[in-house]
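Hey all, quick one. A colleague (J.T.) asked me to put the adenosine-5'-triphosphate job into the tracker so the inputs and the structure tokens live in one place instead of scattered across chat threads. No bug as far as I know, just bookkeeping. Sequence used:
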Amino acid sequence: MTSTDPMVSASSDSHGSDDDGVVVNFPYTATDSSETLPGTEVEPAPPVVEGEIVDEREMPDVLPVWLSSRESAKATVRWAAEYGARYVGFHVVRTPLYTLRIGWWALRGVARGLCRGAGWVTARSDYREMLCDAREARDWDRVRLLKIERAESAQHRWKMTGISTATLAAAATAGVLAADIDPTALGWSAGLATALGAIWLGRPTDTPILPTGPMMPVRMDLSADMLTDALRAAALVKADATPSLVTPIHKDGAGWATVFDLPRGGGKTAADVLAKRAVVAAELGVDEIQVIMSRVRAVAGGNAGRVSLWVADDDPYLGAPNPSPLLGVEQFSVWDPIPFGQDARGRRIALDIMWQSMFFGGLPRRGKTFAQRIASAAAVLDPYARHYVADGKGGADWMPMRGVAHRLVLGAEEEAIERFVSMLDELISEMGRRFAVLSTLPNSVCPEGKLTPEIQRRYDMPVVFITIDELQEYLSAMDNATRETTVEKLCRLARRAPAAGFILNAASQRPDADSVPTKLREIITYRYCTQVVDRTSSDMVLGKGKAAQGADASILSEDHKGVGVLVTGPGSFEIVRCDYIDVPAFAEICQRGRELRIKAGTLSGDAASDPVAAAEAAGVNIPAVLADVLYVMHGTDRMHTTTILDRLSNVDEDRYADYTPERLATELENAGVSRTGKQVKIDGRNLAGYRRADLEAAVPAGATLPTPRPPVDETSTDSDEVEG
Ligand SMILES: Nc1ncnc2c1ncn2[C@@H]1O[C@H](COP(=O)(O)OP(=O)(O)OP(=O)(O)O)[C@@H](O)[C@H]1O
């Protein structure tokens, strides 16, 4: 997978039990992958660098490990600088304590110096000891001899002391007179020398002058012993065995990295290590979110017992949101990888979405919709992508799509469900038409039986982007039979339609079997899960057995907004911090997408006839309540007031929660709406409500709808059996 946009230098890592095609997190392994990961951009890994070689087949490199890449060198220098600053700060704070301690040493040194005075004390104690010994032995000759020697040596010491003192005094005087040395400076120097000498004499021999203390700038310092202990505690390595470090443990970015082999004879595999991430993390004294592990496969020189480990200094998924690179892009092609987010080390993850389908799940308010919107936003910037959008909640999340979506279905009431189902039918018809056309094309034009960018334009087959948010709202509101056929239709769209240029992008909140039908999930190729409560829920979104392989979204916390586990293949996954596109930014992207479509003549369907989108594009000011009511009435000619109020609350609870029918009527009247009738009949029920035409009539003049594009041959066939 390649990126055409230089901004999108994408990569994807894997921690799975079989990292097909992704770069393992350890940057010193060249290609830790066995095959190309479908859809994730692989950043070319730096060459293998071995510090202390365990593998005899490889020669040691000249440079140390930390100099093997610019990132590693920069990280090490940054770490050293931070360490240095902490070290200095640590001692500066303790300066008063050091002053007191050194003062005490000096006093003690002076006392010792005075007492011992150039060996007098020692000489006297030695003499006494020898004299005692001689007396005890009644060796009177020796006693006499010692006394004579003592007198002589005392004479000698006095003489030497006198000579030394006289010499020092003469030298000082000569220095002062001849060399014009300032006597004060001399005095200070002598004082300083004396003080230093005293400190030296008074210092306890077992105490260093500057103590070492707990001043590491990072929260985690990985050592070989710590790693071995952790693996032993996790029962991955026996008590008498040790893992072999393939690369030495070293600082790598905001963490510590190594590649290690499990010892033979222990009966454990790299997959066992990945499955015990939480235990390894606990034993290392960090959160499991900080432990990034992956297998190193044979293609990268690895084996079934080789693990690449990176332990982050801190939680790598927190911090200010990362704005999406799409915000600054004028136009985008869905045939290119979509910038999606970043991995733990800040490396870009891009998704190649052609021929894929996507599913997003997880607990509410963790960033599911935001993540789902990234792919849709990229496709909005492609004027040759046609959007079908269904939002079961009918909130404000997808409101900006009104200006670009060929079909837009909001809410999950009975009538909305009907429109949702007919949208799926329309898509399946279109899929059939496309396969019928593709099957007639010569091999030279359609070599793989799939859509190509050329076929896309020549045969009017825009890439179809199907966004379904809050899928559970639709499925849970349906009767069993309808649910079953709907799931079947979705499965057909996810399984067959990608070859015809259909990309399904669905999201569901509740990770249960009804909301995430297993047979649909298993067909979907990319699955993304934000925080969930347990491993079972995580598996519900990501696939059976994924948590056991390490792809476990229950390790995420409430603070991990916009962070999720992305599964991109049978054995590949990554924890991704998604790029950030909020609703205003998404609205700008949709505005741009609309302009691109008008220019390319591809604006179609609902968006082409939406008066509010046209007015907004023309810069005409529309009262917010009028725009919002028209939005919630999207696709319907009339609506009961109660339904409008419910839907308005979904769009903006703060604004509309207190609205009563009377208040709504007043606000709309103030916005220029004149009702041709106050009652509307829907499904035989005649209640207070509004007609869409009355509201549209109130949209200020000046909003011109774009010229409709030339009619497209909509001939469709129900046959979708011609596979790509
Ligand atoms: N990539 C991100 N970076 C930082 N914060 C984010 C990111 N994505 C989402 N958030 C934050 O998380 C909040 C919830 O996001 P979102 O609406 O997508 O949640 P959700 O899971 O779809 O919730 P629900 O199921 O209720 O619709 C957002 O309002 C935003 O503040």
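Adding what we noticed when we looked at it: The chain has a mean pLDDT of 81. The pocket of adenosine-5'-triphosphate is lined by residues 321, 362, 364-370, 509, 530, 561-562, 578, 580 (CB under 6 Å).
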